[in-house]
Amino acid sequence: MIPLIHQTPRLTLLAASRALLTAELHKPRYFPVLLGAAMPTDWPPGEYDQEAMHYFLEQLTAGGRTAAGWYGWYAILKATATMPATLIGAGGFMGPPDATGTTEIGYSVSADWRRQGLATEMVSGLIEQAARTGMVRHLLAYTHPDNPASQHVLLANGFQAAGTHIDGRLRFEREVEPEVA
User: Fold this and answer.
1) Which residue among 42, 46, 89, 109 has its CA within the 20 to 30 Å range from the CA of 151?
2) Tens of pLDDT along 4-18?
3) Can you spell out the DSSP letters for 73-132?
4) CATH number for the domain including 78?
5) Which tens digits make up the pLDDT trace of 41-99?
């Protein structure tokens, strides 16, 4: 079974569940209660939009327990003495790896929390999560050419530029060393 919580120094990464996604989409005032975190002012961030939420919910519903951990993840900044735990972004995978061990990773951070290294830390945690599964060998990521901050996050996490997608987005790739149990 895939672990559904991953800790980094400043973040708790929590795999999306059907209950969380349903609350996020249909009962937004209950979402932070279920999540156990304060909300940023501009939720949802960037490319993590209603379409992504619906896609993740559909995939989790169709795939049952085996789909858990292969789609959306919430990035929650850990509580401090002066601040409650706070949702700062979302990321995850576009599904389980294919037969070659390849899957795609994506991420978005709320504007209130950008330029603090949190996207880099979130992506690092997602890479570690992918390695923990023992199933991922290769990660893909895409970003827009006019988003140098996102490109920096990928490069800082060992991704290498690998051309341009047909839709104009830049393609990045990196290998993953599966963790040995």
Assistant:
1) 42
2) 999 999 999 999 999
3) EEEEEPP-SSS--EEEEEEEESSS--TTSEEEEEEEE-GGG-SSSHHHHHHHHHHHHHHH
4) 3.40.630.30
5) 899 998 899 999 999 999 999 998 889 999 999 999 999 999 999 999 999 999 999 99
Q: What's this model's pTM, rounded to 2 decimal places? A: 0.95
The DSSP output letter for 167 is T
Range of the domain at 22: 5-175
Q: Evaluate whether residue 31 is within a structural domain.
A: yes
- Residue 180 in any domain: the answer is no
For residues 148 and 131, what is the distance between their CA atoms, to the nearest angstrom? 26
Q: What is the tally of structural domains in the chain?
A: 1
